[in-house]
Amino acid sequence: MSVIIQVNHLSKYYKELKAVDDISFTVNQGDIYGFLGQNGAGKSTTIRMLLTLIEPTNGHIELFGMDLKKHRKDILRQIGAVIERPDLYKYLTAYECLSLFARMSGIRANKQQLMAQLEQVGLQERAQSKVKTFSQGMKQRLGISVALVHDPQLIILDEPTNGLDPQGIADIRNLILQLSKQQGKTILISSHLLYEIEMTANRMIIIDKGKKIAEGSVKELFDPSSMLIQVSFANTAEVAVQLQHSKWKDLIKTQEQNNIVFQMDEQQVPALTADLVNMGAAITALQPQHSLEAYFLALTTANRHVDTFTN
After folding, report:
1. 305 contacts: CB under 8 Å, gap ≥ 6
2. Largest Cα–Cα distance in the chain?
3. Residue range of the domain that includes 15
4. 201, CA 20 to 30 Å: which among 31, 218, 223, 265?
5. Do 206 and 266 belong together in one domain?
């Protein structure tokens, strides 16, 4: 399996702000690679460096085995990208817009080929409609069609479902899966909508405040056999002290306000509950959290606690 993106020790500083802070990651051929982080985490900044829209402060980037600085033009010919909302000509029809961008990319595409591109994103019936009449979801799909017009190997999508309604989100999700499974495209997709990444990506990186805090396959990062259990208490401080002298001490992931989050096998939950009751814990709620969102929040919350203690 060949490596499509290799990023080593990449950083971008704006005076005292570390927008991206020494991150490294690898995207393999055929991956749907999720780039996860809250707003302001450094996702868009990293993507803009991959596309040479901004210069890194430090670090090295290779795409398709080539140095980005030395082979910029050759690399960019193999990439299609939609950064935030696509910049389209609203007074042109979808067909005219796609045709224009094809010519700008040096692609001589006939009507049949362009209509096939629009059909791929579900817009063939609106080919002669002006872009100004499109919903945001339709504009996103047209933007992806524009990004695909030169048949790139790598597709980079920055927050492609941002601002969409549930149907629009589902349409983009299905399109991403289709591009991966049917056409073998490698896709890097940034998002803060963790459920969508959980539904599509096979590998991912999680960043927070510009730093990488986890990278790997979805299965590696989120093992359903190791659940996150959030327990809420009316007497959290008293329980927390007793837990520090119990066998559950090493299973505590986070503690915040009235909640303590444990990570454990679900078969351990009854024993934990019994011990908490014996400690005199006033349990107000106990909630298992299976989702990637729970894992992400546990990691980023823990990262903020570490920064609090070290700064």
Report:
1. 254
2. 75
3. 3-216
4. 265
5. no
